[in-house]
Structures are given as structure tokens and as C-alpha cells.
Design goal:
4 copies of one chain form a homotetramer. With about 200 residues, chain A is mostly helical. Chain A is built from 10 helices and no strands. In chain A, α3 runs parallel beside α10 and α4 packs antiparallel against α6. The longest helix of chain A is centred in the middle third of the chain and has 31 residues. In chain A, about 50% of the residues are buried. Chains in contact: A-B, A-D, B-C, C-D. Chains A and B meet through α1, α4, α5 and α6 of A and α1, α2 and α3 of B. Chains A, B, C, D: Belongs to the TMEM175 family. Chains A, B, C, D: It catalyses: K(+)(in) = K(+)(out). Chains A, B, C, D: Pfam families: TMEM175 (PF06736).
């Protein structure tokens, strides 16, 4: 398929997902500072999800720059990934409203988990296509991505258990640990991660 | 016209149609699981419409990649198609709210029907332009698209009758049969469907 | 400036203006047909505004394809034009809610009028730049656009008077005459209107 | 990174930020002129923010056209800048609702201030990368941008103090002085500001 058109469509969807989260800020009904300070928890949840989607986009950019071909299979996996990510505004809105409650925190974690599955699926789909076309350097470079290696390692799974337990005892830890995890994911990238186009 | 600009404009509209459906998820007013589980029927309707628009986009990508020229006539048919598709969030929201009721299910079916008409119109418009320009290979390839052949066949019309009867006896069958139909449309494509750019 | 980036930014804004009008459809609170039929007047207003913005985009595509250069001046006029067009969803929502009332119909007309001013300003800005650069063929072709010639002719102004009087006696005539005017604008274009890229 | 993809993603986010502000116009519940005239203060706030984001985009276009390379660092600064700008619809909605109150006006000023910080950070990030790559002409041209020189000068900081005092005595002065500042920023640009692509 036309890689740049698929990427442009993906970017439009990601940009809208990112930006409609802003609509969840309710205009305060009063004109004093309390009105805006009530938005604090949602601002925090929004910031975490903004970093989340930025990390996702950054890695998508890398994979698509290297991908030799976008097959019908990759198109559908890519759309599954977009679908799972489109639920992030929902979980963000809920957790921002009830940041100290278990169910919203678990729900945020579940959406994150489903997103990770589709993300790994997308990565391995691109690796597989590259391998089939004999582009071994591409498949090696994508396989070496720290986020991919982390998510499919035992640690990538264990962290869900840790977060799940933490939420049980102190719910806000859900989104806090997720933030820390995202900062690691943003930080650890391959050296060539911004040298592809 | 500038094919890439028309495609980019179309993509932006399609991406927004796809993503504004997320806004229909209401943030639960409670922090227990019941709050989010109430969104279940809408999640199902949203997933079906997401697949629907993905199928539509995939086939649009194919036709536009092959189309030798975007005439004023095709521009307007393309916009009619976008207009009919822009009503999908409306029918999805209604059916997601009342998944077991006849009127919303029939309404979803009607929008699907109108969309099919504009889709067939777009396809035949591109075929006609290609033929007039002597690009017979292009018109043959587009004419051979399974979705186009299905929609204009007797089966393409009969299925509306089947769905209409099914809705009468058990309303949720409307969206369920539509899902099955979409999965077939997603599956059956020509071999070269992802080999154009 | 980078013409394709300015055009892409414009397209994104236009696509969003077009599509957020869909958000004005309220999901019916009942599951019977009355629920959806109440949306009828808004559907009509939305369809008119959809054609309106499609006509606008079509002509913008033509002018930008020919424009030899996007200056800072044209950038700002283009943004004024986008600003005036961004008020169309507001006037459409109001007129769709009260299609038989004078104030919403006059308001729709006023927004249309302001939009026409910015549109003519954009056209003459591009013509002027082309002339200054010695691109007389470009300035002649853009000057010959029927929509531009109509809007700045005596008829282009007289029609506002006609519509204003018609609204006074029978408010829905406002949007009906606008629809007729738009269909003429969509129909009458120069022969080369879709032959630029 | 692929500069055009990063720019296209940025443009999509900026276009959405710009356009979702339209959603804040509430459809009047009455059909008389009072209904729409109540939107006056918000229309003013929206217009100011529209100019604001247009100025931002114009300068972003210039910097990205010159930037020799988009590094991971610039990607993240660019996203911080987008994040700060995504709060503009929130502050605009609040100030448009309570244009004569201190807290909303101060909040608008605070968002403007945070945005300025991320904007200066983005500019200096691009300058630094250009310098490191030996592209001294690029770093000189970007360093010479009037908006950048103003924001980091003593005047750029003093104006916040002036606005803060003005708001204390007459709140609407907050957004009025901001408008004047923006008009200056729109006016004063380098001569080559629209001659890059």
C-alpha cells in the first residue's frame, strides 16, 4: 500500500485521539480559582496519556520508516492498534475523574494492556513481512527496539502484576507507575531511533 | 485535480468520522465497574463501525491509487460518499444506546444502504473516467473488486431484505449480520489489493 | 511558504469544520422513529453547509494549485477565511434548531456574507501576488473564476437583499435560496477547474 | 526523523486545537438575537486565540523549514509545545465565559506564559542542533526571529508583570493586551519569513 497515505491516515487518527482528550476539561462554572483547580487530577491523567501516545507515535514513526511494505495484514493490525488506542481518552477521562478509585485505575491498566498486545502484534507483523522479503537488517533493527523487547519480556508482563497489586493498596499508584514506565520507554530507544525518515 | 490533496482531505474527514465516535462514550458518573460495563453495547457498535470505516478506507485507497484522474464529477461523488459516511457516528450512537430496538437497527441499516449507493456510485465514476481515458486495465481491475461486485449483485440487495426481516424478529441481528458481512468484505479482496501505491 | 504544508494545514482545518457539524446531531433519547425524525431540519441545514464547504474547498484547491507563491499576506488572509468558515458550524447548528425563525436565518446569512468577503479577499490577494510576479496567465485564470466574478458583481450583492427580504416573509427561504445559490456555484466553474494539480 | 511526517502530525494537532474551540460556542436555546449576542465575549476570546495559534504556526513553519534535522530531543520539545498549546482551548473557554473576572484572565496569562517557555525551548533546541551540525546560517536566521528575541528579552518578561497588574485593576485588559502583543508578533517578522519552504 501507499506507505505515506497509511502513515498520514494513522497520524490523523492519533492526532485526534490526542486532542479530543482536551474536550474532557470542563469549563469551570465559577470564576474563582477553585473552578480550575478541580481540573488538577484530570490534567495529570491527560499529561500521562499525552506522553503515552507520544511514545507510541515515536516508535510507530521508526517502524514505518523502516517497513519495506505495508501489506493488507499490517493495515489491519495497524487499525487494531488504532482502535485500542482510541479507548485511551475513555480510560483517561474516567481515571481523571476518580483518580483514587480502584475500578478506573484497573480499567486504565486494562486498556494499556490491550494496547500493548496490539502494539507487539504490529511490531511482529512488520518484522515478519521484512523477513519474508529478505530484509534482514530491517527485521533486526525493529526486533532490537527496547520497547518491543521490554513488552514481550517477563518484566513486561510482571509489571502488570506489580501495578495491579499497587492499585489494590493505593489506587493512584496505577497511573503513577504507568508514568514512570512511560518515561523509561521514552528514554530508552535505539541510537538510530531518530535517524530514519 | 491534485490526487494526493483530494486523498489527504478525504483521509482527514474519514479519520475524524472514525474518531469522533469515541466522544459518544460517556465518562461513568460512578467509580465502580457497573459504570464502565454499561458502555458495553456502545463498545460493540463502535467496533462494528470502526471495521466498517476501515473496510471503506481500504477500498478507497485501492481505487484512488489506480484512478488516472480525479475529475470534478468524481470530487463531488467522493464528497457525497463522505457525507453519507459522516452519518455513521449518528446511527452508531443510536444503535449503541438501544441495541435491542427496531428503529435504531433499521436506521443503522438505512445509513449502510445509502452509504453503499454512494460507494457504488464512486466506484462506477472512477471506472467510467478510466474507460474514457482508455485506461482499460484500470477499469477492469476496479470492476473486479469483490466489494463492488457483491454490492451490485442480487445478493448485495437481498441481504438488506434478510437483515430487515431479522431485525423485525430479533433487533440485535441487524448489527450482528452487518458485522459478518463486513468481515467477509474485509477478507475477500483481490490479490493485488495491497500492491498499489 | 511551503505551499503543500499551508494547503495541508488548511485541509485539516476545513475537514474538522466539516465534520464537527456531525456532533450537533443529538442521539435520540427514545428508540422510536420520532426520535430520529426530529433531526430532520438539522440534517437539511447540515447538508447545505456540507455543500457550501465543499464548494469552498473545490475553489481553494484551484487557486492554490495555480498560486505561484504563498506570501505572509496570503497566509493571513487564508487564516481569516478559515476563521470566518469556522463560524459555519455555529450558524448551522442554530438554523437547524430553529429553521423557521428569522434571527437564526439572518445569522446564517451574515456568516455567509462575512465568508464571501474573506473569500474575495483571498482570491484578489492571490491574483495580486501573481500579477506582481508577472504570472499574468495565472492571474487571468483566477480572475475568470465564476464564483469570484459572481460574488463581486452587482448580483452577488443583490442576492443578499433578496434573501434578507425573503427571510422576513418566510424564514426557511434563507437556507433554501442559499442552497440554490450553492448549486449554481458548484455547477458553474471554468472548464479547467479540475485540470490543475 | 522524517521532517514532513513530524510537521504533518504537528499540523493535525494544531488544526484540531484551533477548531475544537468552535465547539465551545453553545447553540442558543432561544431563537431571538439575544441568544447569539451572548456569545459575543467568547467570540472575542476565540478570535484572540485563533490569532495566537496562527502566529505560533507561522513561526513553527519557518523554523521547521530551516531545521536541518529533527532529533529525538526536538521531537519531545515539539510535543511539550503542543501539550502547552492544547491547554489554550481550556483557558479560552474560561476567559470567554468570564471575561471580566480576575482568575480566568490570570489563568489565560499563565497558559500563555507556559506556552512561551516551551516555544523558546523549541527555538533554542533547533538552533542548538543546527549549530552542532555546523549549519551556522540556519542557527543565525532562527536566532534573529523577532518573536524569539522579544520573548527572551527583558521586555518579554516585563510584559507579564504589566498584564498581571492591569488584570488586577481591570480584568479584561488581560486579553486585550495579549491581542495587541500578538498583533505585534504577527507584524514583526524577518523579511525572509515567508520565503522558506
Amino acid at each position: 500500500m501507499d506507505k505515506s497515505r497509511v502513515a498520514a491516515f494513522t497520524d490523523a487518527v492519533v492526532a485526534i485521539i490526542l486532542t479530543i482528550m482536551v474536550l474532557e476539561f470542563k469549563t469551570p462554572e465559577t470564576f474563582n480559582w477553585e473552578g480550575i483547580l478541580e481540573e488538577g487530577p484530570y490534567l495529570f491523567a491527560y499529561a500521562v496519556s499525552f506522553i503515552y501516545i507520544s511514545v507510541a507515535w515515536y516508535n510507530h514513526h521508526y517502524m514505518f520508516a523502516l517497513a519495506p511494505r505495508i501489506t493488507k495484514r499490517i493495515f489491519w493490525i495497524n487499525n487494531s492498534w488504532l482502535f485500542s488506542m482510541s479507548l485511551v481518552p475513555v480510560s483517561t477521562a474516567w481515571v481523571g475523574e476518580f483518580i483514587s478509585e480502584r475500578a478506573p485505575e484497573y480499567f486504565y491498566l486494562i486498556i494499556f494492556f490491550i494496547w500493548s498486545i496490539t502494539y507487539m502484534w504490529l511490531t511482529s507483523g512488520i518484522i515478519k513481512t521484512a523477513s519474508e522479503m529478505g530484509e534482514n537488517e530491517v527485521s533486526n533493527r525493529i526486533s532490537a527496539m527496547p520497547i518491543y523487547r521490554f513488552l514481550r519480556s517477563i518484566w513486561g508482563y510482571l509489571i502488570y502484576v506489580v501495578v495491579a497489586i499497587a492499585i489494590y493498596f493505593y489506587p493512584p499508584m496505577g497511573i503513577i507507575i504507568t508514568l514512570i514506565e512511560l518515561l523509561f520507554m521514552a528514554y530508552y530507544t535505539t541510537d538510530d531511533s531518530d535517524q530514519v525518515a
